[in-house]
What does this fold into?
Amino acid sequence: MRVADCDEPAVPLGGRRVELRVVVRRFWCGAAACGRKIFAERFPDDVLPAFARRTSRLEQIVHHLGLALGGRPGASLAQRLSLPVSRDTLLRVIRRRATTRSDPLGVIGIDDFAWRRNHRYGTLVCDLERRRIVALLPDREQATAQTWLKENASIQIVARDRGGCYGEAATRAPPEAIQVADRCWGGRPPNGIAVPS
It folds into this structure.
């Protein structure tokens, strides 16, 4: 981010939490036919998007913290860096940014993750060519993964674990896609088979 008046790069204030209170002008519409009665002043989206609680720069930092560390560890580091975010906020930012993509997918990785450990699991889909998350599915059911794979017909390679759910979905949805499965699933050989080292 750059300072608006002199175009110099904005510099953080050495480890101290800085909170900006922005005063926004509000305008009222007196027309009887107008559906919206109150209008608020807007700022450029690269500085402060509409309805934002964080600057674009802080939003990017929060996103990278969530990607690198996840919910609880990311929130712990954010606390030490004086960033006021919770573990739920980190996951919410990742979900919100995961929905934007434009290019067709060629090589994906699909695996499950815990929304809440031992309670609720979801499915994570990554674009392995561009190294980014492209979808977070609400559960780890075969039907959900299969529906998503059918909607993205350009997929050529699916990297997955040896769990049955994703293998079945990848076989049925894009049948021409090549499947790549890892050697071990859950940290031990599948079906008790000894894996040579």
